[in-house]
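Table S2 (text version). Query chain:
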Amino acid sequence: MPHACARWKVQPSSIAASSAKRRRAAPWISSTHSPSGWSYQKPAGLLWPVDPVSRAEARVRACLNPDRAEKFSPEELIHLAQLARRVGDHSIMTYLAQRLGYTLTPIEPRDQLAELQHEYIEAARTIQRIAERIERAQVRAVG
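Corresponding structure-token output:
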């Protein structure tokens, strides 16, 4: 099976942390089977569930290593950001926003739900107004 990481030529950047910084895992990374107390097993298993755990873990390590050519594909990066988001970790999006000159304001799911509900209610009101206008136009057309 070919390697799932995209092979991009990248310049070393500030995201490439020192090995000491890499030891501090994001909360969505499993804490099993590693001398430093954590591993890449959980995200690796979620990204590549058909691969053996050791191979998937090695692939994640390679994609995160600034000295290696392997990097995550855009879809894999989005998947990782979604996994992190589920546990309240916004580090991927924060990094991207800082590098690209944006401000970042995470929308909490309950806020998003309230906004969608508000939009739905407004849309229903609009539909009701249109239905009333159609009804009046039909009365005038017949009458």
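Notes on Table S2: The helical segments are 19-22, 41-47, 53-64, 74-86, 91-100, 109-142. The chain is about 55% helix and 5% strand.
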